[in-house]
């Protein structure tokens, strides 16, 4: 499954393990920037290793580097089941 901007994922490791997030930017072949956003899932915008993410087969339509407010609107509009 392609890791791309807008891909919904679950974090596997770290203090935010088992929480859901969305990829907002690709850093390089090993790292991406993810965001929950924090008020929805508790995941702060931060760099994350791809090995620490489990991708869903869901992708939302957001631009690269989208703000947390834009991201929150897109997530709520998409009505993703099980995302919180």
UniProtKB/TrEMBL annotation:
Listed GO CC annotations: cytosolic large ribosomal subunit
Signal peptide: none
Highest taxon listed in the record's lineage: Archaea
GO terms assigned for molecular function: RNA binding; structural constituent of ribosome
One GO-annotated biological process of the protein: ribosomal large subunit biogenesis
Keywords: Ribonucleoprotein, Ribosomal protein
Entry-linked InterPro entries: Rib_uL2_dom2, Ribosomal_eL14, Ribosomal_eL14_KOW, Translation_prot_SH3-like_sf
Name of the protein in question: 50S ribosomal protein L14e
């Amino acid at each position: 499954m392609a890791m791309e901007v807008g891909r919904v994922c679950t974090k596997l490791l770290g203090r935010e393990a088992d929480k859901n997030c969305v990829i907002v930017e690709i850093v390089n072949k090993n790292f991406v920037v993810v965001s929950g956003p924090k008020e929805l899932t508790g995941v702060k915008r931060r760099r994350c290793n791809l090995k620490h993410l489990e991708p869903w087969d869901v992708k939302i339509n957001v631009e690269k580097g989208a703000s947390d407010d834009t991201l929150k609107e897109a997530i709520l509009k998409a009505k993703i089941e099980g995302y919180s």
